[in-house]
Amino acid sequence: MKLSEMLELTGGYKKKPSQARSNKTVDDLYQSAKEIFESEIDEEFSTKLLSEK
């Protein structure tokens, strides 16, 4: 799943962060979510699973 597809599913960025560290955090979260969605795990997606990733 591409980042653009994930943004469509989640409603996109409400406001794009302006600080580099915030941008990296948002990008890391979306990358981790993408990896979880593409993996073959049997767990349901959750914020706990995302934070552990």
In short:
This protein has three helices and no strands. It has 53 residues and is mostly helical.
Account of the protein in words:
This protein has 53 residues and is mostly helical. The protein has one domain. It contains three helices and no strands. The chain has helices at 3-10, 20-38, 47-52. The model has no long low-confidence stretch (mean pLDDT 75).
Order of H and E elements:
HHH
Mean pLDDT: 75
| Inertia-based shape | globular
Structural class: mainly alpha
Radius of gyration: 12 Å
Uncertain regions spanning at least 5 consecutive residues: none
Strand residues, percent: under 5%
Number of contiguous helices: 3
Q: Oligomeric status of the shown chains?
A: single chain
Count of separate structural domains: 1
* Biggest beta-sheet profile: none
> What is the number of beta strands?
0
Alpha carbon gap, first and last residue: 17 Å
Q: What percentage of residues falls in helices of 4 or more residues?
A: 55-70%
